[in-house]
Amino acid sequence: MTSTAEAHAIQGERVVLPVRIRDAAVASAMFAVPAAAAQAVIAYSGLDVAEPLPGRAICSLAFVRYADGDLGPYHEFAVAFLVRPPGTPPPSGPLGRLRGLSGVGAFIHWLPVNQEFTLEAGRTIWGFPKELADIPMDLAGRVKRCAVRFGGRTAVELSVRPGVPLPGGAGAPKVDAYSCLDGVTRRTPWTVSPSEVRSRPGGAQVVLGDHPVAEELRSLGLDRARALSSSTIGHLSMQFEGAEEVRG
Amino acid sequence: MRRTALVTGAGDGLGAAAARRLAAAAWDVVAVDTDEAGLAATALRSPNTHVRVCDVTDAKAVADVLAMTGPVHRVVHAAPIVSGDPALPALEQPPGEADEAMRTGFTAAVNVVRAALPGMLDQGAGELILCPPPGRAGRWTAASGAAAAAVLAYAGAVADEYAGRGVIVRRVLLPGLTLMTASEAPSKDEERSAIGRSSEGETPSGSGRSSEGARASEGGVPVRLVLDAIDRSLARAAGAVDVVPGGRPVPAALVRRIPAGPARRVLARMSGPR
């Protein structure tokens, strides 16, 4: 069903695919979490978490400011897990695990946003698990901070400390984003072109509130874990193709 | 509670980027410009951005916008200063160029301050950010630079006069705006002086730019870095009035001296008793 001519009607606007994001800024952190617990969290998708190390899965938290893009300006928070492409067997042996990492996708488990247009577009076009929240963030200071709040109650807070500049990579990596909304699992081809990237080991702090997703993250130990790495991206452009359904 | 921001020059460049960033942060944004198509592009798919076609050199038009919005919590004045061809030196500029620069630079800023500041003082809170960029090719002329300097001096005086009343004033020394002494005259560094008229930042370092509108931030500091500097400055309420994106300490030191002393008295005489 992926088609470059695809278009969707969202709130009276015609959104043409691929959707382009011309300027966004990001801060994120990756955590190694118990694979069994992570698998339980995403079991509803029919996908399997990737295990780069035996018994460990990768959970990623990120916050994004969309400053200029086809879905309007908004803030977003993301909870994602690295997953194996559907239908591939679990890799075996250290080399196999390493090789297996090259094909991994990102399963988007939770994606609160703070604007209506992108809420409807994200759910309709790609089945992204967007919901409306207050998402204050500070991406200008040394330490990047973000909170997700519902009616004044904090669900999650993430802060990311500054890292060291990474050399700019050439080309635009292609990733597959997976999502599962209303029982339908979808794959979305996703191209990212980051610049002004800084990264470091550790460097992230997570505060969890009383939201169901916060409970899940607590069950993974995220409020106590040291991050594998955290990074910031000063300028990111992205492109999202149409989604296609994944059959398990 | 939703906060309201007024952004001038919101049809393009710095103002458009500022408006979008505030909209992303869930502010109610009143985006103002004379460029209706540019405003529409800024407000695209942004339900909390409200556009108003308004010429900020017209005091009544600005007052009318504020009468409609009510008190705003933040003003980002980024309406560009219109002046001559930045490739030409002062004497080769067309007649009236300096008047135009003062009208679109200094007069416009005064109009915006006079319209927005009373509401902020009433509320005992507000953020007034003055950062008019050069209008053409993202580069300063002698006259547009002088008009910008007048805006900075005015902002400094306003910050002094209304200090302690809850209003945070920031004046932004945009890249390339040097209050030039002869030794600071641009040479090779001049290419770095452009301030982008679009939010795109990734262009190879500038060379051979024609006088046609500067896309992105050709050779200059990307507008998002200017906005980052403003955000950082606002995070410290008691911080300095001056915001210097990309850090250019020497010109900053020069500007800082303007509002104190003679320049301020000159300004006081120019604006006269009310």
From TrEMBL, chain A:
Specify the superkingdom.
Bacteria
Report the Gene3D superfamilies cross-referenced here: Acetoacetate decarboxylase-like
Q: Which InterPro entries match?
A: Acetoacetate_decarboxylase, ADC_dom_sf
The name of this protein is: Acetoacetate decarboxylase family protein
UniProtKB/TrEMBL annotation, chain B:
Residues in the signal sequence:
none
Question: Can the keyword Oxidoreductase be found in this entry's annotation?
Answer: yes
Q: Keywords assigned by UniProt?
A: Oxidoreductase
Query: Which InterPro entries does the record cross-reference, listed alphabetically?
Result: NAD(P)-bd_dom_sf, SDR_fam
Specify the domain of life of the species encoding this protein: Bacteria
Q: Does the keyword Oxidoreductase apply?
A: yes
Ranges annotated as biased composition (Low complexity): 205-217
Entries under Pfam families matching the protein: adh_short
- Residue span of region Disordered: 184-217
Q: Which family does it belong to?
A: Belongs to the short-chain dehydrogenases/reductases (SDR) family.
State the protein's name.
SDR family NAD(P)-dependent oxidoreductase
**Native species of this protein?**
Actinomadura fibrosa
